[in-house]
Design brief:
67% of the residues lie in helices and 0% in strands. It has helices at residues 4-18, 23-30, 34-41, 49-59, 63-67, 78-95. The chain is globular.
Amino acid sequence: MLDIKSIFGNNLKTLRLSLGLSQEEFAEKVGIDDKMISRIEKAHSFTSATTIAKICNGVEITPDQLLKINANFLPDDMSDKEALIKKLLFTVKRFRY
């Protein structure tokens, strides 16, 4: 089953590439270490709410844009989809405060 780290990492990489930035350039723009960007994109590490806020503020997006699911992430089994959606909703609610 796909986890939040993979979704977040893929969305972060997609965002960075859409801005035409290297990991180093993106890290400088948002004010975090480029090694952290690499670890997040590869789903080797998740990050704190503070770092997510820095990313969002640096490129003027909202956290939900980094946590959205596209069709490639959804498993075929509906019970897995429901569990994934519940987990994502729980995570998104934590970032609203």
